[in-house]
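Q: Structure tokens for this one, please.
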Amino acid sequence: MTGSGIRGPRQNNRTGGICAYVICKCFSLVSLPSGHSKAVRDICFNNTGTQYMSAAYDRYLKLWDTETGQCISRFTNRKVPYCVKFNPDEDKQNLFVAGMSDKKIVQWDARTGEVVQEYDRHLGAVNTITFVDENRRFVSTSDDKSLRVWEW
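A: Here is the predicted structure, written as tokens:
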């Protein structure tokens, strides 16, 4: 696939794959990792861009190697992850949070695969997560029409 303009990562809803594009005047498909059985809802790169996490309707979060396109590990709590974010701090790049369809925000350690903490105060699915206040807090939005500020 080629074209002109600036393009970035996007999902392939038919296959659950993720398309990665080189950002330049002309773009070309770099990789098309496959591994999700349903559509991808969100992706998030780590600070260095060497890895990214994908969240899909197949109820899995998957950690990918950007260069090889290989799946490194996968995580699930058997609910649909709506959004995912790595902790932006350099010393916490192994930690990520995911907003889930069951109203929870789940924090995982990518190194161990363990759930570190669950945040459970929303009354609807969690749609977005944004780190603020020098990454000491994060803000989430939900189908319950609220936003909430959480201590990391």
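A few notes: The chain has one domain: 36-151. Confidence is low (pLDDT under 50) at residues 1-8.
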